[in-house]
Design goal:
This protein has 14 helices and 7 strands. The protein is of the alpha+beta class. It has 3 domains: 192 residues, no CATH class; 65 residues; 172 residues, Heat Shock Protein 90, CATH 3.30.565.10. The longest helix is centred in the middle third of the chain and has 80 residues.
């Protein structure tokens, strides 16, 4: 899984910076707020006849509009904001809204609940530190508004609200700010993690497909070049044989023969190298050979890997050399080898209905607390030390990628620990979903249903 750590080490959107939010989006949100604020002031002051500090209120609204105009003129609105910029932008919104509510009754104003809006937006796009800072700013503003504000506008004398009622409003707003900030940030953070993990999966699959394409191209090139090179070699040999030994061209002819033979040797090795052989997605091979090809690059000195087959019905299935299967199985086998003490056992079994692969190692096994969550990306680094050791901070991404790729082929995975120690991974496919030729492949949904049906016979 080491090559996946470079994906996992990238800063997650929303943890080191704004989650791709554009300036245009925040400007649009602010224009809506500006229109609503101005319209409310005008309707209350002129429509309902409540005396407001209309000039000061409209000046506050105009300040927000001025910031929007400056942002439009000085920056490209389509660009993504950095963390600091987005935090300052939303911090200004908190202060602007707080000053406007200060002019119109403080917490006695029903619109005081709008103080939650900038914090909610921040929780969906900013890091934890920025959300905490903006939440603290909002709580401070709410606290000031509870004790210091202009009178609530009314047609007669302002109503005197009991202090306990104002305290209740303050408590409700503060708790709502903290709860919404925490809840929205956690939900948005989980969505960002999942999106980032899926992006890593797509990168891994694209890399495997590129490797397969290059291998297929190399094999095809070696095959196509073989015939003309053979003709060149024959002619070179005839020239070398017919030229007298004292001819000034005899040495050149011999060199041409030796170099043509060298080219044929290189092309033969290229055509039969493990990365190129069967690299085309339309090449089919026995499932046990596919499993060994997936695990071969991950062998490690001192760890014995035993490949075995078990058949209960029929001859061994032949399947396409799929990048998803190669990458997924390779990742799981590498994980087992990395944490095995002495031995890893990979068993391939098949019957009339399904194909199964079991990977067993003699290592410490999976942490019991993580077993129910294996396959989720970015598990906590402190919890997986028992299994992942130094890979702590990123454990779960490699297994997540493997599970996602294998499930794309209709597989179902189960993780467990052996009674005497060691990890156990079971993968099972419906046989029909893997044996179908590429042009008659079982659709994803049908393959998944078939895998579910076959998986009922699989135990952890």
């Amino acid at each position: 899984m080491a090559r996946f750590f470079e994906y996992a080490s990238l800063p997650l959107p929303g943890e080191e910076g704004a989650a791709g939010v554009s300036l245009r989006l925040l400007i649009a949100i602010r224009w809506v707020a500006i229109a609503g604020q101005a319209l409310s002031l005008l309707i209350v002051h002129y429509g309902f006849g409540y005396r407001l500090p209309i000039v000061a209120g409209l000046a506050v609204v105009a300040a927000s509009a001025a910031v929007n105009l400056v942002s439009l003129l000085r920056r490209r609105s389509a660009r993504a904001l950095a963390e600091r910029e987005a935090a300052l932008y939303l911090g200004f919104d908190v202060l602007q809204l707080g000053f406007l509510i200060y002019l119109t009754g403080g917490l006695e104003n029903p619109f005081a609940m709008l103080m939650l809006a900038p914090v909610t937006v921040a929780a969906t796009i900013l890091s934890r530190q920025s959300v905490i800072g903006l939440s603290g700013l909002a709580v401070a503003a709410i606290t000031v508004l509870a004790v210091e504000h202009r009178p609530l506008p009314s047609g007669a004398s302002p109503p005197a609200l009991p202090a306990v009622y104002v305290f209740g409003i303050w408590t409700a707003l503060v708790l709502s700010t903290l709860f919404i900030a925490a809840y929205a940030w956690s939900v948005a953070g989980e969505a960002r993690r999942m999106r980032n993990a899926f992006a890593a999966t797509q990168l891994a699959l694209a890399r495997e497909q590129r490797i397969s394409a290059v291998g297929a191209l190399a094999a095809a090139a070696a095959h196509e070049l073989g015939s003309p090179l053979a003709t060149i070699a024959i002619i070179a040999k005839e020239l070398a044989r017919e030229l007298p030994s004292d001819s000034p061209f005899a040495e050149d002819a011999a060199l041409l023969v030796s170099q043509s033979e060298r080219c044929r040797t290189i092309l033969a090795e290229l055509a039969h190298r493990p990365d190129a052989e069967g690299a085309s997605p339309y090449t089919r091979l026995p499932v046990s050979a596919l499993v060994e090809a997936a695990g071969a690059p991950h062998s490690r000195p001192g760890i014995r890997v035993i490949y075995a087959t078990t058949a209960s019905a029929g001859k061994e299935p032949e399947v396409a050399r799929s990048p998803e299967i190669l990458h997924g199985l390779g990742n799981l086998i590498q994980n087992a080898i990395q944490f095995a003490r002495h031995e890893v056992s990979v068993t391939v079994a098949w019957d009339r209905d399904g194909i199964a692969v079991e990977i067993v190692d003699d290592g410490p096994g999976f942490p019991p607390s993580l077993l129910p969550r294996l396959g989720q990306p970015y598990l906590s680094g402190r919890e997986e030390r028992g299994r992942e050791g130094e890979a702590g901070g990123h454990m779960g991404l490699g297994i997540f990628i493997a599970q996602t790729l294998l499930e794309r082929t209709g597989a179902r995975l189960a993780f467990a620990n052996l009674l005497d120690g060691g990890g156990h991974v079971a993968i099972r496919w419906a046989r029909a979903s893997l044996e179908q030729p590429p042009d008659q492949a079982v659709p994803r949904d049908r393959a998944g249903e078939a895998g579910d049906k076959a998986n009922k016979e699989t135990t952890a």
